[in-house]
Amino acid sequence: KPALTKIGAQMSNLTGVRAIMKDINETLRASKGKELYNLSAGNPLILPEVEQLWRDCTADLLASSEYGEVVCRYGSSQGYAPLINTIVKDFNQRYGLNLTDRNILITAGSQTIYFYAANAFGGYTNDGDLKEIVLPLSPDYTGYGGVCLFPEALVAYKPTLDIDTAAHRFKYRPDFNQLSITENTGCVIFSRPCNPTGNVLTNDEVSKITDLAAPYNVPVLIDSAYAPPFPALNFTEMTPVFGENILHCMSLSKAGLPGERIGVAIGDEKLIQVLECFQTNVGIHSSRYGQAIASRAIESGTLANIAENVIRPFYQKKFDVLESTLEAAMPKNLPWFLHRGEGAIFGWLWLQDLPMTDWEFYQELKKVGVIVVPGSSFFPGLKEEWEHKHQCLRISLTGSDEEITIGMQRLAKVAERVYQVA
Ligand code: PLP
């Protein structure tokens, strides 16, 4: 084994859901012949219309004189100019903004935006002060757990819960009595819509957070990997929020291009420049082939159109299947609560007073051929103990209707049994 530095040891750890994926993959491999209902995937499905769109854009690129310029040359770290200009035009028109090309950075996937920001704004200053990376509402995206070279910098806050007992539904809210953003804060990050919960923070909640950060010039990264205009995986009305200290971060991954690694950060020129230099040092730039086809899909309006008319309804229907199956199958007297399905590609189920941990419940589900993801991996940065952390499950909406239905019927039976035994 090579000798590792502190950072080397930190970065060679698998964090959050990646660690569990290993167990899931081994289960899948060992299950030869046995029918499994796998509702663990975070990978979006390949929808035929979406694949066709990217094929068409590729054909167009191949036939154009631009091809050699795109794939046979290095480019600027800020991104491929035609894509940047297309986004400027699209967003100015769509949202009435005054963006210029200096407000845009294209990155190798949006995960890298969070990595650059977490380490450019969070961690130790020259004076040795620790600048925190604040996650204002936990649970949130598991990938934030791995982005800090100094994990002690990551600080997440417990939410408050709006519970509708009769309807078996709940929703997380940021707890503004606890949330603290000060001169010790380096940046703030949250996903909207949220992976894993499907929560969409209201515009009012977003403004409250950005107002808390503004006096300290703290950048607020709004992870819009599931937001409109693409992939438009919001099932409730929502409008993106822009502002001086906001970095609006997008991803092409849930719109069919996860393999091409394209993220987009939109924000103040001074913030964009910091991240751009970071990117030059880390990996020079994102794939230009991916950027060139993305530019075509956005410019023609097809991507936004397919997002709204194909991608969103597809997953919204899956959520309906999940919801109606749980309603029919779950014992009425059990304290089960499904998070309001406001977006993204997951259902988030809270089993209050569950008489075992989420990990043990996950093992019980495996025994009946159902795989979901135990919820405790989605609380990166939350240092205090909280029993709720061990009472939740993430259920992927990428399963077929049949997989979701049978998976949830079996889950209901297991839940009934484990609560009864206790
Ligand atoms: N943010 C959220 C909320 C996600 O769910 C994901 C991927 O699942 C990412 C960021 C990272 O996406 P990418 O790096 O592919 O843009």
Could you outline the blueprint of secondary structure elements for this entry?
Elements: H1 6-11, H2 16-30, E1 37-38, H3 48-63, H4 67-71, H5 81-95, E2 104-107, H6 110-121, E3 123-124, E4 130-135, E5 154-156, E6 160-164, E7 169-173, E8 185-191, H7 203-213, E9 220-223, E10 246-251, E11 263-266, H8 269-283, H9 288-299, H10 302-329, E12 336-339, E13 346-351, H11 358-367, E14 370-371, E15 373-374, E16 392-396, H12 401-421
Parallel strand pairs: 1-14, 4-5, 4-8, 7-12, 8-9, 9-10
Antiparallel strand pairs: 2-11, 3-4, 6-7, 10-11, 12-13, 13-16, 15-16
The protein binds pyridoxal-5'-phosphate.
The site of pyridoxal-5'-phosphate (PLP) has 14 residues, from α6.
- Low-confidence runs: none
Look at the structure and name the CATH superfamily of the largest domain: Type I PLP-dependent aspartate aminotransferase-like (Major domain)
Assigned CATH architecture of the largest domain: 3-Layer(aba) Sandwich
Q: Shape, please?
A: globular
Molecules bound to protein: pyridoxal-5'-phosphate
Strand content: 15-25%
**Average pLDDT score:** 95
CATH fold call of the largest domain? Aspartate Aminotransferase, domain 2
Gyration radius over CA: 22 Å
CATH class of the largest domain: Alpha Beta
Number of strands: 16
Helix content: 25-40%
